[in-house]
Amino acid sequence: MLVIEWQDCLSVGVLEIDIQHKLLFERFNSFLQACESEADQDKVHRLFWFLEAYAVTHFTEEEKLMQASGFPDLPMHRKQHAEFAAEIARIKERLRCEGPSPTLVSSLTTFISDWLTRHISQMDRAIGNHLQRSAP
Predict the structure, then answer these.
(1) Where would one find the signal peptide in this protein (predicted)?
(2) pLDDT of residue 39
(3) Among 1, 20, 98, 110, which residue's CB has the most CB atoms within a 10 Å radius?
């Protein structure tokens, strides 16, 4: 089974953000499992839409923390979030048209795994460092 794994090295040191990241990994793996088990299309679509909505909610929460703490790289971070959301919208349309084909699921897994790992280990870690330095 395809799976993306949470690793402790991805912790950004902010419990709220780490919990949300772990849930993103768990929910994406639920989506992959549904695709591999050839679950009904409605379940696959519901899981994907949940992921999409949860990512937006998570991004909003992160951006609120950045705004409140005066995080200097907020514009760049927002840009990356917007680019991720745009790619997810494109994938959602492909999923709607094609269904969870092995090719689509494989490319989605690669995209999500690479993006989350890179974004968390670089951009989100910078937020964690900033929040820890600015904490009273």
Answers:
(1) none
(2) 67
(3) 20
